[in-house]
Amino acid sequence: MEKILEVKNLKKHFKLNSGWLSKPCYAKAVDEVSFDLYRGETLGLVGESGSGKSTTGRTILRLIEPTAGSVHYEGTDITQLAGQDLRSLRKNLQMVFQDPYAALNPRMTVGECITEPMLEHNMYSHNDAVDKACELLKDVGLDKSYYYRYPHEFSGGQKQRISMARSLAVAPKVLVADEPVSALDVSIQSQIINLFKDLQNEFGITYLFIAHDLSVVKYLSDRIAVMYLGEIVELCDKHELFENPRHPYTQALISAIPIPDPTVKTERILLQGDIPSPTAVPQGCRFSTRCRYCQPICLEQHPELEEIDGHSVRCHLHDRLEAKS
Amino acid sequence: MTQYIVKRVFKGLITLLITITITFLILRLLPSDPAMMMLGDMFTDEQRIELMAKFGLDKPLHQQYFIYLKNLLRGDLGMSFFQRRPVMEIIQEKLPWTLLLMITTQIITMLIGIPLGIYSGYKRGTVFDQIVNAIAIFGISIFVPWLGFTLLYFFGYKLPIFPIGGAYKVGVPEGWPYFLDIGEHLVLPVVTLMVIYLANYVLYTRGSIIDVMEEDYIKTARSKGMKERRVLWKHAAKNAMIPTVTMAGMMLGRMVGGAVLTETIYAYPGIGRMIYQAVGQQDYPVLQGAFIILALSVILMNIITDIAIVYLDPRIKLG
Question: What is the pLDDT of residues A182-219, one digit of tens each?
């Protein structure tokens, strides 16, 4: 399969308390993240709050400047682009934000919001842009009469549909969806997820789908990357991940998915404590503070992401853990 | 929309009536005798009673109130104790000067303050932002008479570039020289007021821009591939203007009250100086007139602001 996006050693360290008397300290929100995105696939990016998923998504799109690393889109390193080149690139890479209530400019009508990028990139004449916007509204399941309405007149689910129409306006190749359903009611979530799937079938867009809910990702993704404290700890095919999770963190996440059958007994792996602060990441394995299999080596040596048969995992004990389960 | 405006105007009228009533009552509560004010010490009891009757002050309070309202409707604000002429006439004479001074100040301050606030909010934390902030805080904390006297001393006396006071020179011919002369007289008071008001526009706009720039829809705009300039001035600035407009409305409303200290320092013949003098002369009708005009203007500007905000922010529900 053809790589459309290649992320290499992406880093984003936020500088904190940079007062002139205190020593600067850094929050390692994203640390050495590497993965490839293949054309037409959906890669799910999961992890709990604070694991750096959203920062990864935003850094890839240069909505946040990366500290280090590269992102190649169809061969071009987009971290090196600036000015007009970067703005033109935005046609190809789009994002749907988590909070549909905040992502739409309250002073612009739905129509203005959707047509603006088309006009900015000189893709259509004004009249064609209006037609295209109405078409997009239809594609996302909204009535074209909504064109002249303002965002506040819509519900969360409708706003997320508008956001999707907006992101599709420039006919992007890659769409980063940053927890697009977590702010919505459960009943609306499934509609939006289905819409994502339909739109992918229709337009052949590649998705990077960020979520903290494994069941959402399971339904949509082809492959899944699990993030913990700024790092990818496991990355493989969706079926492989659910059947054969190798990282203790992934195992805990999967065991936490509720099964809608009261007769099935599951062993829940309960994680102790909270995710450590990204300003003070543990030495050695970052998951060592909460891992129930933790060994001396885990406290000392930072594990590398090892790949065996397309299944990458970052754990010193992954071969032994497999034997245990 | 029409219904909203009608409702808003109706509310404004009620507010005005309450203000007028309070002004009326406060004046009646004052421990001074208006007849004594007008006649001075040399009067007989007969003269006093005659005068009270002439002004209707012998009537019961509620009758006085209705006469007062009736006169107000006719634009009659009473007679000045000190100048012996209608208050309305005095205000009509002073108001244009105050409006000239204040409108000039407000327009210049807005034109400088709002873009400065937007840009320094955008460049938050940079040296530029810190300098703008320092100037704004300096302006808001400065003691007006000190600033006024300093400017007068240096630019009116030591370096006599600008006139030392007043609003115009007597005997200047009509046409351009006259306008130029008025402009020259405006410079120092306008600069003084600008220093004070600039902070309002800069700090309000700056704070608001900082909030707005954090919003997701700014990220959306950037992700659309918009030019940064357009993101700032179209997406951010438009949304950030709402608090600034509200504040500007309040400041414009208070405008007709003049600037008591500044007008007094520069001997500017406006409402502010009139209020200052009326306090010294215990000229209550003049003060009362000034209060009513001020209330009317504040209420009117509030109505206009409320209507403007509806146009600015589609999220505001009419009601």
Answer: 888 888 888 899 999 999 999 999 999 999 888 888 89
pLDDT value of residue B75: 84
Rounded Cα–Cα distance for residues B146 and A180 (Å): 58
Which residues does chain B have within 8 Å of residue A170's beta carbon, measured at their own beta carbons? 224-225
Interface of A with B in 125-154 (CB under 8 A): 150, 152
CB of A99 within 8 Å of a chain B CB? The answer is: yes
Which of A61, A121, A150 lies at the smallest CB-CB distance from B223?
A: A61
Residue of A nearest to B314 (CA): A107
Question: Across the beta sheet with A206-211, what order do the strands follow?
Answer: A93-96, A174-178, A206-211, A42-46, A223-228, A231-237, A311-313, A306-308
Is the Cβ of B127 closer than 8 Å to some Cβ of chain A? no
| B210 contacts: CB under 8 Å, gap ≥ 6 | B121, B124
Q: Which residue stretches of A177-234 are H helix?
A: 186-203, 214-220
The interface predicted TM-score (ipTM) is: 0.80
Residues B232 and B176 in one domain: yes
pLDDT tens digits, one per residue of A72-88: 999 899 998 888 888 88
User: Counting beta carbons within 10 angstroms of the beta carbon of residue B173, is it exposed (0 to 12), middle (13 to 18) or buried (19 or more)?
Assistant: exposed
Q: Return the amino acid letter for A230.
A: G
pTM: 0.79
Q: CATH code at B106?
A: 1.10.3720.10
Note whether B225 contacts A: Cβ–Cβ < 8 A: yes
Fold designation for A3-92+172-324:
Rossmann fold (3.40.50)
Q: Which H or E run includes A296?
A: helix A296-300
How far out from the chain centre does Cα A17 lie?
A: 28
Domain membership of residue B140 (yes or no) is: yes
* Per-residue exposure over B62-92, b if at least 16 CB sit within 10 Å of its own CB, e if not: eebbeebeeebeeeebbbbbbbeebbbebbe
In a domain, B265, yes or no: yes
Contact of B219 with chain A, judged by CB distance below 8 Å, is answered with yes
Same domain (yes/no): B105, B66: no
CB-closest option in B215, B223, B230 to A63: B223
- Residue B311 sits at the chain A interface (C-beta within 8 Å): no
- What residue numbers bound the domain in which B161 lies? 94-280
Q: Flag whether residue A63 sits within 8 Å of chain B, measured between CB atoms.
A: yes
Residues of A in contact with B227 (CB under 8 A): 87, 120
